[in-house]
Amino acid sequence: MMSKLKKENKILAKLNDVFDITGEIKSEKRVSIKADRKNVSSILLFLKKQKGYIHLNHISCVDWIEENEFELVYIVWNPKTKITVLVHTRIDRENPVMENIDTIWDQANTYEREFREMFGIEFPGLVGAKEFILEDWDNIPPMRKDFNSQQYAKDTFTTRPGRENAQNVREAIQKRSGEEIPDFAKKYSRD
Amino acid sequence: MSKTNNIGIPTVEEIKQAQIDFSPRCTSAGRVNDKETQKMVDYILNFARKHSLFVLAYGTGCGAIEIPATMTSRYDAERFGIRGAATPRQADILLITGYLSTKTLKRVIRVYEQMQDPKYVIAFGSCTINGGMYFDSYNTIKALDRYLPVDVYIAGCMPRPESVIRGFVKLQELIQKGNAGNGECYRENLEWYRENQQKVIKNWDFPENYNW
User: Is a pLDDT exceeding 80 seen at residue B3?
Assistant: First the structure.
């Protein structure tokens, strides 16, 4: 097993040497690390310039509303070793500011403009930091979890009558076939 | 209406005097024909209209992916006289293919108002009917006929090319009966439509008056 994950171990050890991170090997060709937000841009620059992780796959944002934090995940890929590295970092939700990395990858600019609009994260020095996809938006950023999309839609748009008695699919199946709803699923119920 | 000869056909002078409006829903003020002749004229006009439906090549949402399949060799919509048009002013039909975000709605209204009469709107997919799977989305409208007059709704998510063609055939039937074409209705009830549109479109920068 260890010999199989030789390359993954190598990059993880190297990152551990240089930076203050915690990391694990998720699976073959998939390494996940957690870092402080101040180190992220230098980790990404290190991975790109020194280790050949030249491809930025994706940047995603997760809203951890209970912990009052946003999590940003930078996914980079090395075309030679075919290894993906996921760099996780947490930022404060009340005052969300993150380093701008569009000097490392130009295409990061698009992601950052989207985060700025959808989550309200500010990136100092971001080029084109203005209205991006939404037009004339005057509410809280819509991808935040405290934004109630259903209520907003109810208040803003006229809905056609007839949807009010729409059945909850899971409950309808339960009534018909006597299947039990697991506890974790109950909190996602429509009502 | 001035005097016509006994078979009901207007004289050349009468035609020249009157500005004949070909709109099927317009008031009879500009018409020079008597009832029976107008019926015949309408029949011919509607027959011609229903066999030359020019669809504006403008796709919103995911439903636009069904249009190439409808237009190309397998389903071949052109045998019904349905084909694409490049600009709003050359088009008869505005197809709303799927969900409509508020940002797109603004553009669609501008496009619809630029089209020449007679103009028809076909709404496509369940999103235009009641929001579909985007019923709780913050950015898509839920009922299209609040914002634009709709002639035919095609249900389905997505409707297959057969249903699309069925919708077009239904529109052809309506056109032949003279019941389609809501441009006049839109102009008459503009206040109601504008009120609904302005509820959704916050930064309203439309021209005050159109030269219809």
Answer: no
